[in-house]
Write a structure and sequence with these properties.
Structural class: mainly alpha
Largest sheet: none
Helix content: 55-70%
Mean pLDDT: 79
Low-confidence stretches: 1-8
Number of strands: 0
Distance between the termini: 41 Å
Shape: elongated
Radius of gyration: 18 Å
Length: 88
Amino acid sequence: MAALMTQITGCEELERYKRDAVSALGEGKRIRLARDVSFQEDAALSLEGHRKVHALIKHLLVGHEGRPCPAGDRPIVSPTKFPRKRLR
């Protein structure tokens, strides 16, 4: 377990994506609670939050030259060693 923990390094880009996603979702929530918003404004707030979360997920999956981010909270499942049998 200790060997696994030493391999994981911090990723500045990952931290930036996390902060951006949290701030976008929090800002949308604060605006919705502060006043009544129209459907169009609500959709725009939701879209901005979704874009930030999508960027975070994309970085976790393929953010380092097509490889998963090593600083992610959970390890990405590696490909299986043996091909799966096809079901007919």
